[in-house]
Fold this sequence. Notes:
Helix content: 25-40%
Oligomer: single chain
Distance between the termini: 47 Å
Number of helices: 8
Radius of gyration: 22 Å
Amino acid sequence: MIFKHFIIALLIVLPTVSKAQTPDEIFSWLPEVDGWKKPASKEVFNPDNLFDRINGAAPLFIENGFMEMTAFDYVKGEDYITVQVYRHASPEDAFGMYSTERSPELTFYKIGGEAHGDNGSLFLFADKLYFKIRSNVSTESSGNAIRRIAGSLASKAAPAAAYPAMLKSFPEDGKIPYSEMYITANYIGHDFLNRVFVCKYMKESLVYQLFIIDAGSSDAAKEILKKYVAFAKQEIDLKEGSLLIKDRYNGDIPVLWKGGKIVGIFNEDGKTVPDADKILSYF
């Protein structure tokens, strides 16, 4: 009985092990699709040769923690469906790349953490993977095939895929649908603002961004703010709480510093957002 209790306790303590998500494993997940010939081979790209496949887009992928891309094609006569599976260093990086390329004009689907596309393409994320699926045709038949492939791959990669947990802490009131993002580096043009969670909001016809940086500790957050106020050439006695950064490029940035987190408000036109203090008090 003691041994049984030990095994149960061990199972509770041990962390969940993520799937390996290697090219071979991803290739093994490919489903059969009626009317389409299943891929017989794959191509694999890494940071050194990704440029060969996607040209000028490679630097942005690498900035978002790109590790490896596995590509393969389904074919039906002269038609094809190309599947590209990008593996990133973390689920946040995969979501970040997905959110960077998201188009609100497309149709959204509950596949993986989120998917959007049409009958000729589909884009989605699940765990550390970002999927780009495209066909040279756009018909109801091709759309069904694309979504069949996407659903099967996403369920194998991460059945419970979802947005990064930090995004759940943002308020819902006024949020613009499908505006959540994760910016890995150089948020609003500053090299000291990295790994930033962002949502867009609308208040009195004014669109603004609410952002959170989780620095991990109060000291780390203070170091980020020191760099910001130095850039702004402000003399501020930095203490936890509310402050206003006078960013000469981006306008006034209301900020709340709370422990290891920095929460701020940014408007692309540099305009003042009404009731900024009230918005930040949510946190």
